[in-house]
Amino acid sequence: MRFVIVTGMSGAGKQTTMKMLEDMGFYCVDNLPVPLIGTFLELLNRPGSEISKVALGLDVRSDQNFAEAEETLAGLKQKGHSFELIFMDAADNVLIRRYKESRRIHPLAGNDGAQSGISRERQILANIKKQADYVFDTSDLLTRELKEELDRIFLQNGEFNGLIVRIMSFGFKYGIPIDADLVFDVRFLPNPFYIEELKPLTGEDAPVHDYVMSFEEAGEFLKRLTDMISFLIPNYVKEGKHQLVICIGCTGGRHRSVTLAGELYKNLHAEGKYGITLTHRDARLG
Length: 286
Description:
Layout: E1 2-8, H1 14-23, E2 27-30, H2 37-44, E3 53-57, H3 67-78, E4 84-89, H4 92-102, H5 114-131, E5 134-137, H6 143-154, E6 164-171, E7 182-185, H7 206-213, H8 216-238, E8 243-250, H9 256-271, E9 275-280
Parallel strand pairs: 1-3, 1-4, 2-3, 4-5, 6-8, 6-9, 7-8
Helix pairs in contact: 1-6, 4-5, 8-9
């Protein structure tokens, strides 16, 4: 039986993940009292049980000190039960925004506000996050992208490397993305902006793409960048990094950076080893 436990920060997407697992054929149970987890698992493992995939939601709201939950999970391992642990996370400012938009109150906020509740929850969940098999940071993760990752792990039985790679094109004149981990400047390439028929197009359009990639320097840059990123990613995974934001910039973020970001995305996506997303931040501006 495949047994998955879903936990994490309130507002980070636990309920969404549970619904996606249910759509994949998992028998889903949310917020089962912690003392009943062992009994529940023993019942499912009885001979003749037809349930082969189970997902259990574990929420801070069920047990605010979370100590009993951690002890129960440790006890399951000691008894030889295997399970996979998914931890849903997001940046504090994103969680606060989500609570404001939904007009919900954070379960640990009390009279001190959402930020205080989030800080308490992070402390409570710090240890179980370290034990997680899969950590999903949904700060910038689209629902579709989360589903693709879950499908790859639980339907295609693909390998999860603990890292979501986000590739973003941008324009330097609008500022470097604040969440960038790696920034690459492609302003050394000729600018399609100064060619009248290419100016209104973007790097996603074939004429601009073909123009940018017609230069030997573009192909060489892409090759070296792909090789370097392919080298770096496994090392970031070993260090426990969960998200890598790679930003490629040109002057306005409309032509050169869009083309090169798209090509890097294709190269890394073809390797099939990591969750890869692509965003063109400034392609439609100006």
